[in-house]
Amino acid sequence: MPLREDNWTIPNLLTISRILLTPAFVAAFASHRFDLAWGLFALAGLTDALDGLLARLLHQRTRLGGMLDPLADKVLLVTSFICLSLAGFLPAWLAALVVSRDAIIVGGLVMLNFWGVEVRNKIRPSLWGKLTTASQISLVFVVMLQGSLGRSWPLLLDGLILLAAALTAVSGLHYVRRGFALFPVPDDDERFRR
């Protein structure tokens, strides 16, 4: 399907709104308004589901949307994990794992771009990446729901923590492996010639 040149599309506006919801989520969470923070996170999750669906249905896929959508997910999820970890709702090691995975992926993309690899055409979200995002969203959603309802589901929470941790680690290793395969072979790259 061809990409549109017009970036002012409904899916892109939904993606941008998800990025803008992140500081509102942080403000609500910092004010201990867990009901509002949960609602904002749920709304952001809804925009995540809608933007991709509408982009396909309305034939409004754009390069900007292809870059903004994963960025919006990373901004919201990394911010959420940091907030929940600092408040003691999630273990610090899990937040460190989530942040480190995304930092390594972004750093790898920057290095590939520096080496002249056209990453936009070669890097696509994998099944592992999608499962990781779904598990992380589910975990944050449950933690925020517990806080807003004043309830506790320790078995569910522990299971989601383990699932999110395992998928985060596996998908991180998967993306690192894919990234290394994209680096140019030294004999073919002028930078390695003396």
State the distance separating the first and last CA atoms.
43 Å
Radius of gyration of CA atoms, rounded to a whole number: 18 Å
Which word captures the global form?
globular
Low-confidence segments, ≥5 residues, pLDDT <50? none
Element order: H for helix, E for strand: HHHHHHH
Helix content: over 70%
The description of the largest β-sheet is: none
Q: What's the tally of helices?
A: 7
Strand content: under 5%
- Please report the total strand number as a whole number: 0
Mean pLDDT over the residues: 83
Question: In terms of structural class, how would the helical and strand content be classed?
Answer: mainly alpha
Quick summary:
This protein has 194 residues and is mainly alpha-helical.
Can you offer a commentary on this structure?
This protein has 194 residues and is mostly helical. It has 7 helices and no strands. It has helices at 10-30, 34-57, 63-86, 92-114, 119-122, 127-149, 154-182. The protein is globular and about 60 Å long.
State the main characteristics.
194 residues; 7 helices; globular; mainly alpha
Secondary-structure topology with pairs:
Layout (H helix, E strand, L loop, with lengths): L9 H21 L3 H24 L5 H24 L5 H23 L4 H4 L4 H23 L4 H29 L12
